Amino acid sequence: MRQVWNIIKYMIIFCANLLMLFFLHGYFNLIIMIIMIIMPIASILTARLMLSRLHVSFAGAKENIHIEDPFVLKVVLDNPAWIPMLNVNLKLHVKNAFFRLEGEHVLNIPAYAGQRNEISYPLSSEYLGVLSIEAEQMQVLDWLGFVCWKRDISEKKEIVLLPFGSLEVEPDMAAVNNGMTELEESRKKGHDFSDVQDVREYRPGDKLQNIHWKLSAKKDALMVKERVSLSSSQLIVLVELFQNETMILNRILIAAYGMAHFLLQNQIPFTLQWWSTREEDMKRMPVDNQQDLDAWIESIYYEAYYETAELGCMMMRRLVQEDTRFMVIGSSGMTGGDVLLQYGGDVEGYICN
Predict the structure, then answer these.
(1) Beta strand 101-108 with 88-96: parallel, antiparallel or unpaired?
(2) Contact (Cβ atoms closer than 8 angstroms) between residue 351 and residue 178
(3) How far is CA 229 from CA 13, 215, 233, 255, in A?
(4) Cβ–Cβ contacts within 10 Å for residue 139, how many?
(5) How, if at all, do strands 326-331 and 270-276 pair?
(6) Cβ pair 119, 89 in contact under 8 A
(7) Do 269 and 184 touch, CB atoms closer than 8 A?
(8) N or C: which end of the chain has fewer CB within 10 A?
(9) In contact, 327 and 340? CB cutoff 8 Å
(10) How far apart, in whole angstroms, are the C-alpha atoms of residue 292 and residue 170?
């Protein structure tokens, strides 16, 4: 509609000048008429040519960002030619595939002659997941605003949105201890309950606590004890991937991440488990450090949520012995044991018998 109005205004000016030329027979009006005939052609062809020369890229913004933290993504437009184009629009598609949220934005960026132009695009999100920002289309409007040329592009930036580590409500340690075995309590106090399977030479990245100092002194070289962790003795934390109209899954994952961070800080060994509807199987991940925890939450973003509040717990009960105790983080009101924490008014962590 905007282009049509521009053409109408141009035609009115052109006809007015033509009438003046017809009655006044002035050379000035003749020159203006010739320019007004050439200008649209030059404007449209230049915009078409520049469409293929312009290049878009993304800069700034770390790959891992905490939710609700505002961040700035820089959109960069490179113009290698010495012709400026002031009306360049970028169509951006922003998507969170995990929660099935998406939207479109249009940015106007001038393309300066022979220069790179950067604009700051502020973003923030209250939902976890992988935020995908893709430049899908470039639109170049010619100088006179008659024609808008379009070109499909595919420049993409992905940002992993992580929860904050700390919980707003501190878990009930008495209930946590009730869900632990004697072996786990001993490990919490600092004892190492893993089996030594073999001894080998040190490799970069090995933990210092695994170095066999006496043998290293004898061999005059660092020797490392290879251990097999007694993962069966670890505390099991089952995370329900339950979603409803209030976006409860976002709060469940925040609570689970915060609880896992709390267990790490208190040196309580644990394993995170969840029911995968994609693979129709119970998946597990032992967490020994913050890197493992971040890897777990990112792997969850590629799962599919379900709409049955206790689906994960029901599947877990089928797979473990009847007297097995494990921790569940899911919707409140489904408690089967000691409540460890409450978060957001509708999320609870509890020990399931």
Answers:
(1) antiparallel
(2) yes
(3) 83, 22, 9, 26
(4) 17
(5) unpaired
(6) no
(7) yes
(8) N
(9) yes
(10) 22
Amino acid symbol at 15: C
Sign, Cα dihedral of 110, 116, 119, 121? positive
Helices (H), 25-56: 27-53
Task: Determine the pLDDT at residue 61.
Answer: 72
Six-digit token string for 13: 């000016």
What residues contact residue 348 under an 8 Å CB cut-off, 6+ apart?
Answer: 329, 330, 331, 332, 333, 334, 335, 339, 340, 341, 342
148 SS3 class: strand
CATH number listed for the domain at residues 1-162: 2.60.40.10
What pLDDT, on a 0 to 100 scale, did the predictor assign at position 188?
Answer: 41
DSSP assignment letter at 187: H
CATH 2.60.40.10 in the chain is located at: 1-162
Backbone φ and ψ of 291, nearest 5°: -65, -40
Model confidence pLDDT, tens digit, residues 195-221? 444 677 877 766 665 677 767 777 778
Q: How many angstroms separate the CA atoms of 135 and 155, rounded? A: 5
Tokens 């609700």 locate to 68
Q: Give the side-chain half-sphere CA count within 13 A for 160.
A: 13
User: If DSSP codes are grouped into helix, strand and coil, which group holds residue 289?
Assistant: coil
Low-confidence ranges of the chain (pLDDT < 70): 1, 168-198, 205-210, 214, 225-233, 322-323, 335-337, 353
Find the radius of gyration of the CA atoms of the chain: 31
Burial of 205 (0-12, 13-18, 19+ CB in 10 A): exposed
For 77-114, what is each residue's pLDDT tens digit?
Answer: 999 999 999 899 999 999 999 999 999 999 999 999 99
State both tokens at 230: 């007694």
